[in-house]
Write a structure and sequence with these properties.
two-stranded antiparallel sheet; 1 helix; single chain; mainly beta; 148 residues
Length: 148
């Protein structure tokens, strides 16, 4: 069994999940900081060359899970693995942020959607080779079309 350990923690203006924008048209444009623990600083070498980072983090304040749920962006139930629900069998979140700058162990980023103090599990540079034309947005595109 895999046991996670944080490599750092998020500094965010969000203290409560209700403050994080959700639903259709939600924009994640808030700045925050990924504070990497000093013992992992060498792992940040050369990260400044990337514009965007993939952050894996823990829903540390979530309990239990639901396999079906109705997201704020639709009025229909969907499987947990087809949503970004925080109530997951393994409480792991994923966020893509824009890297603004690095100051030692602190990565200043834009696009935060995590709560203040959230444990960071991993950080990876975004290296997607998928063109926008090939991306499909599944039920989310259908929900957006119904709202129009």
């Amino acid at each position: 069994m895999f046991t996670s350990r944080p490599i750092g923690f998020v500094r965010s203006p969000y203290e409560d999940a209700g403050q994080v924008p959700k639903g259709l048209g939600a924009k994640h444009e808030v700045d925050g900081v990924l504070d990497v623990l000093p013992e992992f600083e060498a792992g940040l070498t050369d990260i400044e060359g990337f514009s965007h980072l993939v952050v894996l983090w823990e829903f540390d304040r979530s309990t239990g899970f639901e396999l079906l749920g109705t997201p704020p962006s639709d009025n229909r139930a969907h499987g947990v693995f087809a949503t970004r629900s925080l109530r997951r069998p393994n409480p792991i979140g994923l966020t893509i942020v824009e890297l603004l700058r690095r100051e030692g162990c602190a990565l200043h980023v834009r696009g935060i959607d995590m709560l203040d103090g959230t444990p960071i599990l991993d950080i990876k540079p975004l290296m997607s080779g998928i063109s926008v034309e090939k991306l499909r947005r599944g039920w989310l595109a259908e929900a957006e079309a119904r709202k129009k």
